Amino acid sequence: MAQTHQTINPATGEVIANYELATDEQALQTLKESHEAFGEWRKTSFEERGNILREIAKRLRAHKDDYVALMTREMGKPISQGGDEIELCAAICEYTADTAADELADEERDLSGGRALISYQPIGVILGIQPWNFPFYQVIRYSIANIMAGNTVLLKHAPNVWGAAVEIEKVFVEAGLPKNVFRTLLIDADQVNQLIEHEYVRGVTLTGSPRAGSAVGAKAGECLKKSVLELGSNDAFVVLEDADIDRAVEACTNGRIYNNGQTCVAAKRFIVVDAVYDAFREKFVEKMRQIEYGDPTDPNTVLGPIARADLRDTLHDLVKRSVDAGATCVFGGEIPDGPGCFYPSTVLEDVKPGMPAYDEELFGPVASLIRVADEDEAIRVANDSRYGLGGGIFSKNQKHAIDIARNLFDTGMVNINGYNIAQPHLPFGGVKDSGYGREHGGFGMKEFVNAKSVMIVD
Q1: Domains present along the chain, CATH in parentheses
Q2: Per-residue pLDDT tens for 345-393?
Q3: What's the N-to-C CA distance of the chain in angstroms?
Q4: SS3 for 346?
Q5: Which residues contact 214 (CB under 8 A, 6 or more apart)?
């Protein structure tokens, strides 16, 4: 009898849909078909690929309202925020289509007695294992770059957003992408290893937790296959003595509660120098206290539910353990009564090393306030993390802030005097336990290609 999986609305607890899981044999057959499609897709021109990507962008925008409503049902994203995700997806398609011919063009190099070419050639099937928090963007981010590079792509999406996974494959095909160049696999995590082990899979990319990344990276390494990992983080946002406090409060609040606080590059630890701590704390606490959770289908809601009950339980456990270890819960920190997986806006203070709120990633609307003596201690505490995805600095001395960001912040991305997430033209990725490899900005198109040297003797 076939196994099935239900998707659940996290705001109401109601069943959305039932899906039949693919068997191991079906998954391997899909892989074979993707491999066969690669033989033809790799022969297409950048122009042909780019035209399909532009059509995907057009169709994403045309059906934006439907996709936004789907994301709200499946993972609780506030309906006012889903449009930005779809627009980002469309922009990635267009940027990739516009820049690929230059990014992947042959390069000429000198060679004694002749000349040399460097050619960037596709390698085959790329398997992507993606999370639920940005159900469309996470898929578009890796798949579009690889499709444009001439690879074919398989998707193993998070089971709670399988509706999005199905819709993405549908829009790709309707935009003219040949059959089997992109395929969605409705499979469990325990079916992934057989795919990584198979000779037809040439690369693996995962966005998820360090634990999942470690397992997938180890399996890929065991099979001598390249992997790209974008993992979690507990991004530090540093408020220096000369910061514009109102701007810092606005950006830090938005950075903490955007997407219900379930963002890898969310602002999570707020490291504030003693000279302005009280001023920042007063305004930040008041701003966070005003945020109320509610129905994510209401356009006025800025904080919806946590995506699944088990994720809310994990978040609450980390909060409780932090308080038990000496952190002060200024407000929030309690699971509310009623249906849905809601969790209130929460601020923790007196956060110290050894507490989950300091050391771990709290994936939800929970802010960790950390008081430090001065700038030097702020930088040390910001870097005192096994993670290194993003972060932020607030200072009116922009030149000094840039110097800190360039030379002292041990992260892949840094915001200065604001909060931004992914940009199509800028590299996205981290260091340390936040993973390795880069996406966007042309970098993603070169992660899974063969940089081939061709040496010609005249």
Answers
A1: 4-232+433-457 (3.40.605.10), 236-423 (3.40.309.10)
A2: 999 999 999 999 999 999 999 999 999 999 999 999 999 999 999 999 9
A3: 65
A4: strand
A5: none
Question: Whole-angstrom Cα distance, residue 230 to residue 433?
Answer: 9
Residue 194 CA to residue 288 CA, distance in Å, equals 46
281: alpha, beta or left, given left = phi > 0 and alpha = psi -120 to 50? alpha
**Closest CA relative to residue 442, chosen from 149, 128, 62:** 149
Q: Which residues are catalytic?
A: 230, 264
What is the distance between the alpha carbons of residues 181 and 173, in angstroms, rounded to a whole number? Answer: 9
- CA torsion 145-149-153-155 (nearest 10°) is -10
Q: Which two tokens stand for residue 323?
A: 């308080």
pLDDT at 315: 98
Tell me what pLDDT residue 2 has: 73
Task: Report the residue count for the chain.
Answer: 458
Provide the pLDDT for residue 142: 98
Q: Using 70 as the pLDDT threshold, list the residues of the chain that sit under it.
A: 1
CB 227 within 8 A of CB 204: yes
Distances (CA, A) of 163 to 6, 17, 59, 136, 432: 10, 8, 17, 10, 33
